[in-house]
Amino acid sequence: MAALRVFSRNIPYLRQQFSALLGNTSPSVKFICIVVIIGYVLSYSESVVNVLSVTPGFLLPPSFQLWSTFTFWFLEIHLWEVIIDIVTVGLCGKLIEPLWGQMEMMKFFFLTNIGVAFLTTFYYLVIYAWTQDTSLLFEIHVHGLAGYLAAVSVAVKQIMPDHLLIKTPLGKLTNRSLPLLILIAAIILWAVGALEGTYPCMWGSGTILSWVYLRFWQRHSSGTRGDMADNFSFDNFFPTVVQPVVRAVLGPPARCLARLGLCPSPPRRVTLALSPRGVTISMPGVEPHDMERRRQIALKALSERLSKTSEQTRQKNLSTKVNMDAVRKMQASHVIPQFPTETTEQKPPSVPETTLVDISAEPSTPTTKTS
């Protein structure tokens, strides 16, 4: 009851924050948020959960319930999942949609969710073939936006890979390492029983599918496809120490797929062009908007570093000035008095005035002389 009372008191504040988050967003973002809220209300019915969610055994023939791939994503059974979904979709509307456009964002949304449904089903089929446990096919219900949240983290990693999130004693946490860290955390929470097993499966599926789409298939305004930059390779999801091992394991399959024409190989040429402003260098996998974005990030980091350096210089100069003032005050308090020397010219003493009285004259008329 106490928790419910605290929540009811904070309802106006939460409403204000959500309205600020979803303000000035597209109708598609607001539609997704409203549908997720409706799905959470419907999740209190067990029969609705069984019908709307993806069941691996029913997605395959003979049932072949393909329509569940369009309904499972808005069905959440926990309130904290609903809050995370709304916040993530709102941030997508603020960050990704202005760069990609509304149609590209919705395309990314539906492709990711449909792919997560099939890939998660494939995971459970593999586990069933290994364990022969039929409950994995008919008692597992895949639902929620966990796969799309993973896809968003990959997209944010592509847009702002080196953006600092938090500083820890073990190092800095950036967008570059966010998808893998959340996957590891989800696996740990599932192992201790605090999270459903479908969550890490959906997160891993969304990470892989979104990376494949953004790496090879996404069409840009310049007419190119994908992002073949070196900092967006698959091994870049892992720590620096593990990256050589990942490249050694995934390198041969990637080269085979490139030879078969299933995925393009990264170009290894640099184009130089002369322009009125100077020499233009075109590197593989780097789009003009990415170059502008990275230039803005570099300029921001440079300005912050320069402002920090100027502040340190100002503090140093101020400290030096204070020290010099203190030294001058100490020297003034120990001044040696100056005494006159022998060569100093002596002024003659002043002669006082004297009065002389002539005694030969009459007493009534005295004569006064001044010498």
UniProtKB/TrEMBL annotation:
Q: Which organism is it from?
A: Papilio xuthus (Asian swallowtail butterfly)
Set out the biological process GO terms recorded for this chain's protein.
retrograde vesicle-mediated transport, Golgi to endoplasmic reticulum
Cellular localization per UniProt: Membrane
The answer to whether the entry has keyword Transmembrane helix is yes
Q: Where is the composition biased (Polar residues)?
A: 362-371
What this protein is called in its record is: Rhomboid-like protein 19
Give the transmembrane region(s): 21-42, 77-96, 108-130, 136-156, 177-195
Identify the gene encoding this protein: LOC106125398
Main subcellular localisation:
membrane
- Cite the source lineage: Eukaryota, Metazoa, Ecdysozoa, Arthropoda, Hexapoda
